[in-house]
Structures are given as structure tokens and as C-alpha cells.
């Protein structure tokens, strides 16, 4: 089934975007040396695992090394800045979740790069945001949770991966759409936040499916709903928050690849085709699903439109919540 975001992207592009010129370099040999994928986060987790899975297959396809280089810092801004300053030749590519491309500019006073200046390459995968609660939380459905949150203003604590993270902004959006009030408890990443969910120290966490799914299936925490417009085929038994009454609620974690500003569109499209061929492999799709993510095959212009939609969504949330840049 085609994801609604894909339909929005395609409709937008049909009216606004013409095909980018590719004929001049379609047959050019690329790559002729090692390619580096910069991951602006530490090793471990989906942000690091997904590019590694793809890189291994690209090594076989290209006959050239594909190196993963972790450059963490400033919620992904440090590594993203280094890629922005790299040569625009396709040999250095940023592989990142949403933050550096759609969120960091909303919560950080200064960035060492301009998010919109990157050249879109490929969308690796989407992971639904899920409403995860501690095991003994006094609600077993999304409807019960929403009712409880509204009836107990200021009494619920929600964890996040840090200020300005997708989990933080999703919590803000939940409060905006339900009229509830909750206390934000920021952590340094998913691991510490989940640990306190498991320990019962915080009530809920708008996590990504891949991290919470093992806890849910192992009976250590409860996922009450997914935050995507449609149910996920990875956990089809779980309803959406829209089904629970939040008709416009949408949140997901996504992982994309972009190139330095000025990278020729022909090179971006060559990398895009190679990555999409990898994402289409059944074995890769199976690996992604074990991580709780679903591969997404789009063109560079479709990725540009997708990022623009996401950036607008979170900008509206941050503005309405009066989140101050730090």
C-alpha cells in the first residue's frame, strides 16, 4: 500500500517540479574511489545501522569501498556541518535521521550549515512514532490514555530523546491536539529514556517503533498506538492515534541521505538509483523490518518535497509551543 506521504509528495511534484537534468552524466563512471557516508550520531541505533546495511551492498555493486564515518555532536549538527563543507562530488554523503534536516534549525540558535542547501539523494526508511507507556500504566488503549491525560493535567511525565527531538515535539503536538498538560523529561537519547520507561520512572515516551517493539513484545512496556496516518504492517494489530480520535496526528522517524550543496543532480540521481536498487532487495527489506523500519523508494525531487512537508509540520508545532532556541 502506498504511504499517504508518498501520495502527497507525488501530487506536489507533479505541479511544481520538472525532471532535473541528468543526461549529461548518466553514463559517467561513478564512483572511481571510496565513498564516505557520514552519520552525525554515535555508532549503534537505527541511524547508524541502516547506512551500514546499505553500504555493504553498495560496496558489492560499485566495487569501491563505502566507509561509514560517525561524527556525533550537537544533535547531529556537527557532522552535518562537516558534510556541508565537503566537496560537492558525491564522494561524501550525509546519512541522517530527521533532526539535522528538519528540526535542528527550530531549536538551535545557530547551525554550521543551511538545511535546505543540501542536495537530496535518497530516503532510506520510515519508522512509525509509537505511544509507549510503562507496563503498569492505568490505560490499555489509546482512547483510555487520551482520556486519562486530559483528566490529569500536569501529572504525567513524558520522556524524550532530548530537547527539540522528534519525541519531544511529538509530545508537544499531542498536548496541542488533546488540550492536555504533561511534564517534559528530556534524556540524552533513546536508551536512557527507554530505561526509565522500563523502570517505571516516567509514564510515556513517543518513541520510534524499532526501539520500543522488543519491549512491547517482551511484555516489559506497552505500545498503545502508532502515530502514522495508517497502521504499520510491522505491527498491524496496533491502532493509529487517528483511530483514537486525533484526526490530524502524524509523526514518524525517517532516515535520509543528502549530498553537499552544489552536488550535480546527475550524481545525486546515480547514487539514488543504486540505493533504491538495494532497498528493493527482499533480504534488505527483511533486515530493515527487524529494526522496525520500512524502506522507502523515492526520487531526489520527491525527497525534497517530503523534507519540506516535514519541516513545515514541525515548524508549526515549535512555533505554537513557543519553543525557544538554545
Count of DSSP-assigned helices: 11
Number of domains: 2
Largest sheet: 10 strands, mixed
Q: In percent, how much strand structure appears in the residues? A: 15-25%
Whole-number average pLDDT? 89
Brief write-up:
With 326 residues, the chain is an alpha/beta fold. The protein has 11 helices and 10 strands.
Q: How is the secondary structure organized here?
A:
Blueprint: H1 4-16, E1 35-39, H2 46-62, E2 66-70, H3 77-84, E3 92-97, H4 99-107, E4 119-134, H5 142-151, E5 156-160, H6 166-178, E6 182-186, H7 190-198, E7 204-208, H8 209-217, E8 221-226, E9 252-259, H9 265-279, H10 282-290, E10 294-295, H11 300-320
Parallel strand pairs: 1-2, 1-3, 5-6, 5-7
Antiparallel strand pairs: 3-9, 4-7, 4-8, 4-9, 4-10
Helix pairs in contact: 1-11, 2-9, 4-11, 6-11
Descriptive report:
The protein is of the alpha/beta class and 326 residues long. The protein folds into 2 domains: 192 residues, 3-Layer(aba) Sandwich (D-Maltodextrin-Binding Protein, domain 2); 99 residues, D-Maltodextrin-Binding Protein, domain 2 (3-Layer(aba) Sandwich), CATH 3.40.190.10. The chain has 11 helices and 10 strands. Strands 1, 2, 3, 4, 5, 6, 7, 8, 9 and 10 form a 10-stranded mixed sheet that branches. β1, α2 and β2 form a beta-alpha-beta unit. About 6% of the residues have low confidence.
Name the features.
326 residues, alpha/beta, D-Maltodextrin-Binding Protein, domain 2, 2 domains, ten-stranded mixed β-sheet, 10 strands, 41% helix, globular
Amino acid at each position: 500500500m502506498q504511504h499517504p506521504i508518498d501520495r502527497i509528495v507525488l501530487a506536489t511534484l507533479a505541479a511544481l517540479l520538472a525532471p532535473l537534468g541528468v543526461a549529461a552524466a548518466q553514463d559517467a563512471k561513478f564512483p572511481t574511489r571510496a565513498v564516505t557516508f557520514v552519520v552525525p550520531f554515535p555508532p549503534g541505533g537505527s541511524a547508524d545501522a541502516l547506512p551500514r546495511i546499505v553500504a555493504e551492498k553498495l560496496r558489492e555493486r560499485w566495487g569501491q569501498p563505502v566507509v561509514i564515518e560517525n561524527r556525533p555532536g550537537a544533535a547531529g549538527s556537527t557532522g552535518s556541518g562537516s558534510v556541508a563543507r565537503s566537496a560537492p562530488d558525491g564522494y561524501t554523503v550525509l546519512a541522517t535521521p530527521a533532526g539535522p534536516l528538519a528540526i535542528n534549525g527550530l531549536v538551535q540558535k545557530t547551525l554550521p550549515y543551511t538545511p535546505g542547501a543540501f542536495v537530496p539523494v535518497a530516503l532510506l526508511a520510515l519508522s512509525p512514532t509509537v505511544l509507549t507507556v510503562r507496563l503498569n500504566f492505568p490505560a490499555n488503549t489509546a482512547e483510555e490514555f487520551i482520556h486519562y491525560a486530559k483528566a490529569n493535567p500536569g501529572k504525567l511525565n513524558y520522556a524524550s530523546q532530548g530537547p527539540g527531538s522528534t519525541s519531544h515535539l511529538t509530545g508537544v503536538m499531542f498536548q496541542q491536539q488533546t488540550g492536555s498538560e504533561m511534564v517534559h523529561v528530556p534524556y540524552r537519547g533513546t536508551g536512557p529514556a527507554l530505561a526509565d520507561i522500563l523502570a517505571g520512572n516516567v509514564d510515556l515516551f513517543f518513541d520510534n517503533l524499532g526501539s520500543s517493539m522488543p519491549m512491547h513484545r517482551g511484555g516489559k512496556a506497552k505500545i498503545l498506538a502508532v502515530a502514522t496516518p495508517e497502521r504499520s504492517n510491522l505491527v498491524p494489530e496496533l491502532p493509529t492515534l487517528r483511530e483514537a480520535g486525533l484526526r490530524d496526528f502524524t509523526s514518524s522517524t525517517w532516515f535520509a541521505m543528502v549530498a553537499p550543496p552544489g552536488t550535480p543532480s546527475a550524481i545525486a540521481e546515480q547514487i539514488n538509483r543504486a540505493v533504491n536498487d538495494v532497498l528493493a532487495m527482499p533480504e534488505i527489506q527483511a533486515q530493515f523490518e527487524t529494526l522496525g523500519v520500512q524502506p522507502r523508494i523515492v526520487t531526489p525531487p520527491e525527497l525534497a518535497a517530503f523534507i519540506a512537508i516535514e519541516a513545515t509540520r514541525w515548524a508549526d508545532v515549535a512555533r505554537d509551543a513557543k519553543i525557544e532556541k538554545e
